[in-house]
Design goal:
The protein has about 350 residues and is of the alpha+beta class. It folds into two domains: about 5-70 and about 105-180 and about 275-340, FAD/NAD(P)-binding domain, CATH 3.50.50; about 185-275, D-Amino Acid Oxidase, subunit A, domain 2 (D-Amino Acid Oxidase, Chain A, domain 2, 2-Layer Sandwich). The strands form four sheets. An eight-stranded mixed sheet has the order 6-5-14-15-16-13-17-20, with helices on one face. The chain has a six-stranded mixed sheet with strand order 8-2-1-12-19-18. The longest helix has 21 residues, at about 305-325. Helix 1 (about 15-25) runs parallel beside helix 4 (about 105-120) and helix 1 (about 15-25) packs parallel to helix 8. It has nine helices and 20 strands.
């Protein structure tokens, strides 16, 4: 295979995994990221067994597990009664996967360790503080115009992967619709240092059902490895962002759900919208969409992170098969067939979380 260059826009976990997988297959890779470093605010952290197998394939699994928490179980609770309804044990998958558990490792850790590995490839280039502002293509190449503090530049490659998030500049630049809807309620996420396992016999992943206000509770390692918990709540109808993020509302929610005799030690709070959207197409010529640039959904359980990594691995393998001469260019259409389903209920939009079988 003669040397081919791939540009990846976005240095989140999906873009970095795509870039690293491509570099390992012999491609020259350039990663473009508008921020000055990997975003390290609390985001997805749950990585499922099938995704762990993919992280193993790119050679990061031991480091990835070491920087997180292994979660064998997940539980469903009745919040008003404070009783355990059901517990699920990943060990039942022992004969199906090498990783019969979930790993709670924050997504910025995966991105950072992937970048460190990517820097070992002489044909790789990582450009932070570089914003993609326009993209164009012809039958043989893709060109993206980027902007840095010192000016603009055109970068060209054989292919481009847009992994630049839900507001994707690449998706907008190639005029692909982002079909779907936004839920009326927002989600509130609070990160606390208090130990919930000292309050109730929970595990690292917990879902509390309540007719008035559900709550989900997850433990992550934290950058210091000492552990911290994330509690996720819905907002109320008519509640303003300022009200939802206020100290009074935050501590009120936490105390109603898990009362303690002191003030919670909250180290981070955020409010985010919840979408169910999917790009009308995942491919336009030599440009592909992956991760949140292609699909966004309810964030609980890390489905967006996991499905995005599946996108990245599927895409890198597909391009490799074509460029190595093992398949003709028609195989490139398979990526969209596999990663984008044909319908999603009555809304008639594709549901990004179902992989269509391609026989």
């Amino acid at each position: 295979m003669k040397s081919r260059r791939i540009i990846v826009v976005g240095a989140g976990p999906v873009g970095v995994v795509a870039a690293l997988a491509c570099a390992q297959k012999g491609f020259a890779v350039t990663v473009i990221e508008s921020e000055m470093k990997v975003e390290d605010s609390p985001r997805a952290a749950t990585t499922h067994p099938a995704t762990l197998e993919m992280i193993e394939r790119i050679g990061l699994i031991d480091q990835f597990i070491a920087q997180g928490l292994v979660a064998r179980y997940f539980q469903f609770w009745d919040r008003p009664a404070r009783t355990l309804v059901a517990e699920f044990d990943h060990e039942l998958l022992r004969d199906e996967t090498r990783f019969p558990f979930v790993v709670q490792t924050e997504q910025h850790k995966l991105a950072n360790m992937g970048i460190a590995r990517l820097r070992q490839f002489p044909d790789s280039r990582i450009m932070f503080g570089t914003r993609a502002i326009a993209v164009r293509q012809d039958s043989s190449s893709v060109t993206v115009t980027v902007e840095r503090p010192d000016g603009r530049e055109d970068l060209s490659a054989d292919y481009l992967i847009g992994a630049d998030g839900g507001r994707s500049t690449i998706r907008k630049g190639i005029e692909i619709e982002f079909e779907g809807y936004t839920f009326p309620e927002h989600f509130l996420g609070f990160t606390v240092l208090d130990d919930f396992q000292s309050m109730l016999p929970c595990c690292f992943r917990n879902y509390f059902a309540d007719p008035a206000e559900w709550v989900n509770l997850f433990k992550v390692a934290g950058d210091d490895g000492k552990g911290r918990w994330r509690a996720v709540f819905p907002t109320r109808t008519g509640e303003t962002d300022e009200e939802a993020l206020s100290d009074e509302a935050m501590h009120g929610r936490l105390q109603r759900a898990f009362p303690i005799a002191k003030t919670y030690d909250v180290v981070h709070r955020n409010l985010y919208k919840v979408h169910q959207r999917v790009a009308a197409k995942f491919r336009s010529g030599r440009i592909f969409l992956a991760g949140d640039a292609a699909h966004v959904n309810n964030t609980i359980g890390g489905l967006g992170l996991n499905s995005g990594i599946h996108d990245a691995m599927e895409l890198s393998e597909t391009i490799h098969l074509v460029e190595s001469g093992q398949a003709d260019e028609s195989l490139l259409d398979r990526y969209e067939r596999r990663r984008r389903s044909k319908r999603c209920g009555s809304s008639r939009i594709a549901c990004s979380t179902r992989i269509a079988r391609d026989r």
